[in-house]
C-alpha cells in the first residue's frame, strides 16, 4: 500500500500558475502508475493527467493539455502537477492517485488539495 498526501493548492487569478505536489510513502513508489484527478462541487471526478512508472510517458485530459504538466521524481517519491494558464473552470479539489500497472483502477488516493481560480 502507498500513502499519498497532496499539497500546493490555493487561490490564484485567471492566467496564473500553481504547482501541486504529491508525497508518497509506503511500498515501492516507482512500482505505481500515478495520476491526478479533480472534482468540482456537483460534478463527477475527472481525469487530469497520468504518468507511467519511469516517468517517460504521460497522458492528459484534452481540457488541460498544453497547460498542465505532470512529472515524477522516483528518488524523492513525489509526483507534481504544474498548472499554467489557469482558468476558472480549473477550480476543483485535486487528488493524487496511484495504481498498479496491471490494473485499470486507481486504488490509492490522497485527501485532496483545493485549487480555486478567480475570474
Which features would summarize this protein structure in a list?
single chain; 119 residues; mainly beta; 4-stranded antiparallel beta sheet
How would you portray this structure in words?
With 119 residues, the protein is mainly β. The chain contains no helices and 11 strands. It has strands at 2-7, 10-13, 18-26, 32-39, 46-51, 58-60, 68-73, 78-83, 92-100, 108-109, 113-118. The strands form 2 sheets. Strands 2, 4, 5, 6, 9, 10 and 11 form a 7-stranded mixed β-sheet that branches. A 4-stranded antiparallel β-sheet has the order 1-3-8-7, with no helix packed on it. The mean pLDDT is 96.
Distance between the termini: 39 Å
Going by helix content, strand content and strand pairing, the class is mainly beta
By oligomeric state, this entry counts as single chain
Strand content: over 45%
Count of alpha and pi helical runs: 0
Q: What proportion of the residues is helical, as a percent range?
A: under 10%
Show unreliable segments: none
H/E series, N to C? EEEEEEEEEEE
Profile the largest sheet: 7 strands, mixed
Q: Write down how many β-strands occur, each being a DSSP E stretch of 2 or more residues.
A: 11
Give the rounded overall mean pLDDT. 96
Rg? 13 Å
| Overall shape | globular
Amino acid at each position: 500500500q502507498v500513502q499519498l498526501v497532496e499539497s500546493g493548492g490555493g487561490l490564484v487569478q485567471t492566467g496564473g500558475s500553481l504547482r501541486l505536489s504529491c508525497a508518497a510513502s509506503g511500498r515501492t513508489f516507482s512500482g505505481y502508475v500515478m495520476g491526478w484527478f479533480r472534482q468540482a462541487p456537483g460534478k463527477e471526478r475527472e481525469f487530469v493527467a497520468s504518468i507511467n512508472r519511469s516517468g517517460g510517458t504521460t497522458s492528459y485530459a484534452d481540457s488541460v493539455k498544453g497547460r498542465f504538466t505532470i512529472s515524477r521524481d522516483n528518488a524523492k517519491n513525489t509526483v507534481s502537477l504544474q498548472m499554467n494558464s489557469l482558468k476558472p473552470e480549473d477550480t476543483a479539489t485535486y487528488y493524487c492517485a496511484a495504481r498498479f500497472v496491471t490494473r485499470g483502477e486507481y486504488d490509492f488516493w490522497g485527501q485532496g488539495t483545493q485549487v480555486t481560480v478567480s475570474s
